[in-house]
């Protein structure tokens, strides 16, 4: 899914949705929203909200009980966006590399 700006230029994209995927905290099946990315300068224009609305509506059509996603703990702006859209934090995970420990929040929106 691609978001386009006023002049028809790409503004961002949704990496995809996995239907009936177990969330890593509760182990319940719901629609997993993969990453949403936007070019710098395109945030705050409603593209993310519109894209998220399409995903939520499709999840409802498919009778998914909730939409879930993960967001980096360091992505404060992303977490605020999902919180404004009524997502709640289910819990936190840690992803470790040999160089660092990356904190991830798992968030969900009941349908």
Write down the secondary-structure element order.
Answer: EEEEEHEHEE
Strand residues, percent: 35-45%
Distance between the termini: 21 Å
Mean of residue pLDDT? 86
Largest sheet: 5 strands, mixed
| Share in helix | 10-25%
Question: How is this structure best described in words?
Answer:
By secondary structure, the protein is of the alpha+beta class. The protein has helices at 47-61, 76-84, and strands at 2-4, 10-14, 17-22, 29-33, 36-38, 66-72, 88-96, 101-110. Strands 3-4-6-8-7 form a 5-stranded mixed beta sheet. Strand 1 (2-4) and strand 2 form a beta hairpin.
Explain briefly what this protein structure is.
With 111 residues, the protein is α+β, with helices and mostly antiparallel strands. The protein has helices spanning 47-61, 76-84, and strands at 2-4, 10-14, 17-22, 29-33, 36-38, 66-72, 88-96, 101-110.
How are the SSEs placed, and which strands pair?
Blueprint: E1 2-4, E2 10-14, E3 17-22, E4 29-33, E5 36-38, H1 47-61, E6 66-72, H2 76-84, E7 88-96, E8 101-110
Parallel strand pairs: 4-6
Antiparallel strand pairs: 1-2, 2-5, 3-4, 6-8, 7-8
What key phrases describe this protein's structure?
43% strand, disordered N terminus, 8 strands, alpha+beta, five-stranded mixed sheet, single chain, three-stranded antiparallel sheet, 111 residues
């Amino acid at each position: 899914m691609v978001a386009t700006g006023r002049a028809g230029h790409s503004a961002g994209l949704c990496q995809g949705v996995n239907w009936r995927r177990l969330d890593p905290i509760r182990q319940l099946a719901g629609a997993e929203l993969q990453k949403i990315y936007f070019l710098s300068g395109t945030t705050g224009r409603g593209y993310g909200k519109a894209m998220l609305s399409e995903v939520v509506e499709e999840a409802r059509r498919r009778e998914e009980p909730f939409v879930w996603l993960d967001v980096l703990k360091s992505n404060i702006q992303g977490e605020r966006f999902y919180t404004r859209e009524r997502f709640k934090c289910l819990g936190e995970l840690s992803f470790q590399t040999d160089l660092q420990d990356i904190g991830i929040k798992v968030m969900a929106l009941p349908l």
